Amino acid sequence: MATHHVTTKWLGDMAFEATNPGGKIKMDSDPEYGGHDDGLRPKSMMLASLAGCTGIDIASLIKKMKVDIDTFSIEVEGDLTEEHPKYYHTVRVDYHFYGLNLDETKLQKIVDLSLEKYCGVMEMFRHFAKVEVRILYHPN
User: Fewer beta carbons within 10 angstroms: which end of the chain, N or C?
Assistant: First the structure.
């Protein structure tokens, strides 16, 4: 069983620095909550983690399946509950693929493999949020 470890240090006011094997991330809140708007927001980082996890899967699968694209991007939006503790109850994930001859069948399969088999962050999100997915193709 793999174990991940992150160390988070308080920097004063509402700022923190988290360290993991890949580097450091600074977190802060906006001035309304006592921060200085000088770092990433913890909840938004969850959305970025989801995009990063599925994105890494897709980049790997595009290479393995020899799919020709120019680039791709992932947009993630999350709707928070009204009551505390606020958490994402609905998350929308939009995959944007760009290229001349996009193989939509293969790209659909790649996204499905990430969502259903490989992306552990997606699986975690499914335990507390409704996840809506769209794939958008942009021929150049």
Answer: N
- Two structure tokens written together for 99: 């290229």
| Bridge partners, 20 (sequence order) | 23
- For residue 82, give both structure tokens: 């009204």
What is the rounded distance in angstroms from the CA atom of residue 100 to the CA atom of residue 110? 18
CA 87 to chain centre: 15
Grade residue 60 by pLDDT with cuts at 50, 70 and 90: very high
Q: Which pTM value belongs to this model?
A: 0.93
d(CA 18, CA 7): 6
CATH number of this structure's domain 48-139, picked from the four choices 2.40.160.60, 3.30.300.20, 3.20.20.70, 3.30.70.260: 3.30.300.20
- Give CA–CA dist 113/133, Å, rounded: 13
Count Cβ neighbours within 10 Å for each residue of 20-29 and write b for 16 or more, e otherwise. eeeeebebbb
Task: Give the pair of three-digit tokens for residue 28.
Answer: 């802060």
Where are the chain's structural domains?
1-40, 48-139
Phi-psi region of 57 (alpha: psi -120 to 50; beta: other; left: phi over 0): alpha
